[in-house]
Structure prediction request, 178 residues.
Amino acid sequence: MGNIVKIIILSCGLKKKSKSRSMARHAFGHLQKLRVDVEFVNMQDYALPFCDAETETLHHPRVLNLKGKIQKADALIVATPVYNYSGNSMLKNVMELTGSAWQDKVVGFLCAAGGERSYMSILSMANNLMLDFRCLIVPRFVYATDKNFDTDLKLSADIDARIREQNEMVIKLTGALT
Ligand SMILES: Cc1cc2nc3c(=O)[nH]c(=O)nc-3n(C[C@H](O)[C@H](O)[C@H](O)COP(=O)(O)O)c2cc1C
Prediction:
């Protein structure tokens, strides 16, 4: 497809059996089939410090490693559980620690929630990225609830289709910008 783009799947769910991570893996598998340059970044592996704005925290080796990866990407697909009508605190912490690395990226979201009513809950984080770092937010974000997963966290057909649609939109938008 089009120009060569580099995409990061940023999986922020920390639960052992995480629905948002299952969505992230699904998106990753589909992008690999499209032969896109895609990297899966699992925040379970990072043990990041909390952002306190101290220089030593911002220069922590794991923070710099993650920041470098984000900087090199053209687009990010962020998978997060919905917690208290927002993304989870891991996602917020990553945004605080790596902020400027997000500048001008295309960003899509994969949200796993308990119910239908938090459908618009990712918008505050989308707004942060749009206003702080001029990210181009993909409006076709994916929102799944418990009823979209079976007991092995396999996804329903409609969510599979939404993930594919978003992936293709991320590639199209990124290709047009690079
Ligand atoms: C602390 C906490 C807050 C939550 N807040 C919401 C919420 O505001 N709206 C909602 O629909 N689900 C909420 N949930 C349910 C989770 O979004 C749901 O379990 C989701 O599948 C978690 O994703 P994960 O499996 O990737 O961890 C909350 C769960 C927890 C533990």
The pocket of flavin mononucleotide is lined by residues 13, 15, 18-21, 81-85, 112-115, 118 (CB under 6 Å). The beta strands are 6-11, 37-42, 75-81, 106-113, 136-137, 142-145.
